[in-house]
Design goal:
The complex is a heterodimer of chains A (82) and B (187). Chain A has five helices and no strands. With 82 residues, chain A is an all-alpha fold. Chain A has a single domain, classed as 30s Ribosomal Protein S18 (Irregular), CATH 4.10.640.10. In chain B, helix 1 packs antiparallel against helix 2. The chains are: A mainly alpha (82), B alpha+beta (187).
């Protein structure tokens, strides 16, 4: 029992997280800046782009996501700063 | 959905998002749309598809304006003449923002209204997913409890038969006797 309690308190291994863009439909080739619902969860309350460490996005898709978010910010679909 | 493929050799397809000021009289609105489309026509661009999102609130005010009319054009045109259009759109009075993007290969145009409808459907399924996940977690908990109970019972059962074997002393002595006789025969 003591071991079980310890494992539940411990944070899950960040290496076990999988990229949500890679897993859905055999890998996204492009992330659209017009697609608000897909971009939104990767922006925090203050409007910052979430770190890869927390979301588990792979580097390739994080770069795509960054361009998409920056374009959406320019067109005022997303806020720069809350 | 139509896929974007340029027909000419020297032309390319561009996606242009344009935000225009919303609170405008209808006459001016129509004139503004004509003006914007005129810039493209001057250069000899061909309209592939047009998607009018309509009025939408902005995430932050631009020039003190909080709402904008959003339209997305797909034009096929000469890359060399993109700059002219860009310049004239910058100068145009009613245009708040504009953005040219070269869509990637095999990009499929999805109308905003269709995307929204699909999102509405999927959103319901997201709620269902949550409930499903909750139920699955509960079931797993129950199953784990049941497994633990079964394990406890099995350990008890294992302990019992050993005791029974110990109790039957007569059988043990008989078997030992048999073994001894076998040993004697073999010798």
């Amino acid at each position: 029992m003591a071991q079980q309690q310890k494992s539940s308190q411990r944070r899950s291994d960040p290496r076990l997280k999988k990229c949500p863009f890679c897993t859905a439909g055999g890998g996204a080739k492009y992330i659209d800046y017009k697609d608000y619902p897909t971009i939104k969860p990767f922006v925090d309350y203050f409007g910052n782009i979430m770190k890869r460490y927390y979301t588990g996005v792979c580097l390739k898709h994080q770069k795509m996501l960054r361009t998409a978010i920056e374009r959406a910010r320019f067109l005022a679909f997303l806020a720069y700063r809350k | 959905m139509p896929e974007l493929i340029a027909t000419g050799e020297d032309t390319r397809i561009y996606e242009c998002a344009i935000l225009t000021t919303y609170p405008l009289p209808q006459k001016d609105e129509a004139a503004l749309v004509k003006e914007v489309e005129g810039y493209f026509e001057e250069v000899g661009a061909k309209l592939v598809s047009k998607d009018a999102w309509g009025r939408r609130g902005l995430a932050y005010p631009i020039k003190g304006i909080k709402e904008a009319n959003i339209t997305i054009y797909y034009y096929e045109m000469d890359p060399l003449k993109l700059k002219e259009v860009d310049q004239s759109l910058k100068i145009a009075k009613g245009v708040l923002r504009h953005l040219f993007v070269k869509p990637p290969k095999h990009y499929q145009v999805v109308k905003y209204s269709d995307a929204y409808e699909q999102w509405l459907k999927e959103r319901e399924s997201v709620d269902q997913k949550r409930t499903r996940e909750k139920q699955a977690a509960l079931e797993e908990k129950v199953a784990a409890k049941a497994r633990r109970k079964v394990q406890m019972k099995s350990t008890e059962k294992k302990a019992e038969p050993k005791a029974v074997e110990k109790m039957s002393g007569e059988e043990v002595t008989k078997s030992i006797d048999k073994l001894i006789t076998d040993d004697l025969d073999s010798l």
